[in-house]
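Data card: per-record layout.
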Amino acid sequence: MIYTELISLYQLPLFELIERSRAVHKAHWPDNEVQLCTLLSIKTGGCSEDCSYCAQSARYKSGVEAERLMSKEAIMERALHARANGSTRFCMGAAWRGVRMGTQRFEQVLDIVSDVSQLGMEVCVTLGELGAEEAKSLKTAGVTAYNHNVDTSPEHYPNIVTTHTFEDRLRTIRHAQDAGLSVCCGGILGLGETIEDRLKMLEVISGFNPPPESIPINALMPMPGTPLAENPQVDPLDLVRMIAVTRIAVPKAKVRLSAGRTMLSEEAQTLCFFAGANSIFYGDKLLTAKNPAAEKDLKLLAKLGLATQAPDPAMLAPQVDPCCAASPAIPSACETTSSCC
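The structure for this 341-residue chain is written out next.
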């Protein structure tokens, strides 16, 4: 969707916007299901990047200590626990700038992925920048989806990160898609951005060809010691609006209610689900931040009559839309309006 379409939707009266997003959601997701994803930090802290929201950056005194890559045995124990608790996707994150073929740590990750992929869950990883060969190796090892958020608009991005560019992130997404991986790509609200920035971010994401398989919508959880530690909390209704517009813009993608759920009441979360969210990070912790306890999540879903989605480890990645042009620089180049993509 182009920006003018997105802003027109966003500015609708809230009830009208939700009516539209709900209709789109029901047309593409007829079952009342929510995907449960567990996120594990397999390598925490000590990252060389300067993402101003991240407590794992070595540049900030956030209290997060650098750790080594977890052992495969410890990761498998957590993966088995996640499966037993009902998670259908297991996502492993490492605080690195990226990974490279032939390095010991990448070979270790491939070995871990290979074992986790045998557990019957979808396997997602977020490891920073990827080249084409690294993406292919992850696909062969058993990765279902690659997470790489664009975070915010191209215009606002340099205010948030200076050690890599927005184009670097798009290049990694392109490599993941070319390797046949599904892409999980979203952003963070509360980075000091404007509404225009939020929608320009969504303009980029909604134009991906093939489209993202899932879109995490995060609300900033300010971390002590980071440059954004004093940023104000995102208004829950702004989050609802963004979820609704995202659902309309990318109908077939899972929209994930992600970081920041600890700041939402059950009523606010309910409104997010009604507006089009159908995936959550599930468990007691995200990478370095708290997450609502699993039992509390399951009770809320039961109250709402929402079932949990079954895993689909053999899930096929979204396919290229032939009516949209391809670009060598970015994961999409849909040159028409949303009627194409």
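Known properties of this structure: The chain has a mean pLDDT of 89. Residues 14-28 form the longest helix (15 residues).

See the next section for split statistics.
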